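Intended use. Records like the one below are meant for learning the mapping from a protein sequence to its folded structure. Do not use them to infer anything beyond what is encoded.
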Amino acid sequence: MKLYAISDLHLDHKINYEALEMLPAFPEDWLILAGDICSHANQLRLALAKLTQCFAQLLWVPGNHELWTGVAGIKERGEEKYQQMVSVCRDFGVLTPEDPYPLWQGEGGNHYLVPLFLLYDYSFRPNNISLENAVAWASDSGVVCTDEYYLNPNPYPSRQAWCQARCEYSETRLLELSKNVPLVLINHYPLREDLVRFFTIPQCFSIWCGTRRTENWHLRFGAKVVVSGHLHIRATKYRDGVRFEEVSLGYPKNWNQDHGIQKYLRQILPAPSF
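Structure written out for the chain above:
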């Protein structure tokens, strides 16, 4: 009984969707879906219909694409859109950031699995760039995240206000967990700014990649592993002895279709041997 993770399936790309259809079954194992599976509720239904047949249990957290409105006829905005996707997950028995955190008792020992929805607040920026100028600073480098057009924070006044509310909500729940059981923290966005590095786009895209509020959460809450996606750059890194796994598949250009999606499932528990 193993715990795997993947993110950024981006099933609106035909190549990715067809590859998902070919995924073999892992009937005893669990799978973390760490966001950006798709943007439309109907797409999520199709994905979960397939994946719940392949794995014993799924856990899901939203990425920015799950929160989009104004594309593909999507009318729901902000919190309403998020709750719509949560409702789809519950129809399939998929665990979300709104559910009790499950206790993993499979290989690798007991761990609480903690799905998080934390968003970003533009704080992954140089100290000399103000919050008010962050998007303009990135735009000057030729980068503007599509979220600026499609990610509506309703009913919150801003994305950073929504991020603050989500962090406070998650902190309260995390403090209620036993200190004697290690955690697997699961979020779409990296929890630390020093994990955000790019090779093909300007570094200023980092402002859409997380919040400094979570910089020490791996230590503060006793994490053994931290799972994230979003960057489309798969990696295993360590900070303070804690393993950080970036588990993206990505757009068709980001992965080799000859390998199939199963090649890109990253083992979270038990810890893989490198």
